Amino acid sequence: MTEQYSDAKRSTTGSKHQPKLPSGLTPSTEVDAVGQDLNWGTNIYPSSMTLEDQHTKWWLAWSKMMTDPKWRVGFIPIPYFAVAFLLMILASYYDALPPSMVTGFAITGLLGGILMWIGNRIPKVRDYGLPTLLCTFVPAILYFAGVIPENIQVAVSTFVTDQGFLDFFVSAIIVGALLGMPRTLLIKAGPRFFVPLIVTIVGVFAIMGAISAAAGEGFFEGMLFFAAPIMAGGIGLGAVPMAEMYAAQLGTDPSVFMGNLVAVTALANAVCVVFAGLLRGATKNGKQWFVGFNGNGELMRIKGHAGEFEQPRKKAHTNFVALFQGLMMASLVLMIGGLLSSAIGGLHMYAWTIIVAAALKIFKLLPNELESAATQWGDFVNKTLVSALLVGVSLTFIDLNEVLDAVTSAHFLLMTIGAVAFAGIIAGVSGWLVKFHFVEAAVIPGLIMADSGGSGDVAVLSAADRMHLMPFAAMATRLGGTVTLFLATLLVPFLMA
Question: MF terms per GO, please (predicted)?
Fold first, then answer.
């Protein structure tokens, strides 16, 4: 080893590009490749290699590419990612894609990785949520065009719904964010949160009804066919039960309303993601258009207590035990939420999960170790699986046929875009009045209530770069959706008038 080192040293003498060894690394030190990979994304990833590995230029260039983040797609070096992507195509061609979680993770991870990589390579536009938009809509477009085969769509759809990937993701984000949230923020922001939520729902209903009436389409039609499905927070809580209610009231089949209601929800979700990306770009440099305009991710603005509402500093690295603890905490809290939903009812499983996690945090029922572990698990899932979830949602829930049938109407487009815009503005203003930052309130509950539910929440928060506010997003989606559905129930009889 000494002789090799001497040769390497002589060969590089006088070169200004002579490699330097890291502090504490001797010529005989070996760098653990597994350790490098596990530490990727932290501040302890080795930046240099041993001189043994630099004996040829081609090896140096290859090694540099393998460790450079610019040459990675979905956290995988490009050459290996390309091979994996080719294998997925071959498996699809030979119909060797069993509907399992392993297959689902592979497909969504590969598709999400390449779409995120493409979106992040385009300057300027990427700051306005382009990677999120690509993951949300490109898979649905490719499936609609026949580029993505049926067996891939079936495997992904089974993965997201039947195998519970959506629950897996949302539970990690909700529980991790709530248990990692400052306790004071949770206590003081919660009651205030209902003010912009209720004001936004009532305001959007009234305005869209008035606009529809002025256009000659009917006051209650504007509220029930645009405001209601958009503000209900998703297809499951909005379009589906509303189609049933409308059909029962008018004595027809739910399919008469389903396509239009789903199209409204899908288009509104797309508009929400675009608006969220615009807000992200407008606030990227911390610009303040007026006092309390941009919180840079902080929900509330209360003078004199800023330290109480700051998010805790994230750890530079974690360990396997903490990740397992976090997984168990997210799973158990979701299980309790499902139990309460079945035993008591009244609220969706996610809403009960929020209540349970909030109670654990407010009453300090967990040790700091488990709270920290749940937060780290949520951060891990958020960092690595957002693109996979968006691809899964795109292939599972977005039907371009229904969307295209509806968006050919100018009235449909203007009403849908208007409802989303008014939701953001009303929520921003009413939230600002109760000491929220305008931008954060415009996103939550404004845009969040107008998107397509749990998956839409992920897309909007990702585009707005405010994913840590997921607990309030889930609260707006579920509780706001319940209020909207109740209001729609009261208004349905007026369709007969």
Answer: organic anion transmembrane transporter activity
